[in-house]
Write a structure and sequence with these properties.
The protein has about 130 residues and is mainly α. The longest helix has 25 residues. The radius of gyration is 14 Å and the shape is elongated.
C-alpha cells in the first residue's frame, strides 16, 4: 500500500515537533547530545517533507539522498513553483547545516540550530502549500 502525501507531511510535522522539543531541552540542560539529536530530527523532517512533495507530484518517495536531490533538481526544471521555492537548494543547505555540521560534527551553537529549525518549519509549510 502506497503512503499518501498527507502521511508523509504528518510524519514530517511530528518529527519537527520532536526536534523543537529536543532543542528546548538541550538549551535548558546545556546538553550537546540533545542539540545534535534536534539537528538530526530537523533533517529527517526535511527528508519526509520532500518525499511528500514527490507523492504530490505523482512520483515515488526517493530511495536515497542522491535520488532525492536529483529528483528535486529535475522537478525544478519542469515546474516553476518548485524552482521558485528553491526546494533543491534549501534541502542541500539543511542537509549540510543540520545533518553534517549539527549531528555529525557537533559544530553548531544553539542560536544557529534555532534558526535552522525555523527554516525546516518554513520548508514543510511551503511543501504543504505546493
Amino acid at each position: 500500500m502506497a503512503l499518501s502525501a498527507d502521511t508523509y507531511i504528518k510524519e514530517a510535522e511530528d518529527v519537527y515537533e520532536h526536534a523543537l522539543r529536543e532543542y528546548e531541552a538541550a538549551v535548558e540542560k546545556g546538553d550537546q547530545v540533545l542539540l545534535r539529536d534536534a539537528c538530526e530530527k530537523g533533517w529527517l523532517a526535511m527528508v519526509k517533507a520532500t518525499d511528500a512533495l514527490f507523492i504530490k507530484k505523482q512520483l515515488e518517495p526517493a530511495r536515497s539522498h542522491e535520488e532525492r536531490r536529483e529528483r528535486l533538481r529535475q522537478l525544478a526544471t519542469k515546474e516553476l513553483e518548485v524552482e521558485r521555492k528553491g526546494f533543491y537548494d534549501r534541502l542541500g543547505a539543511r542537509g549540510f547545516h543540520l545533518h553534517i555540521q549539527g549531528f555529525y560534527d557537533g559544530m553548531v551553537k544553539p542560536e544557529f540550530v534555532k534558526g535552522e529549525l525555523e527554516k525546516v518549519g518554513e520548508y514543510i509549510r511551503d511543501i504543504v502549500a505546493t
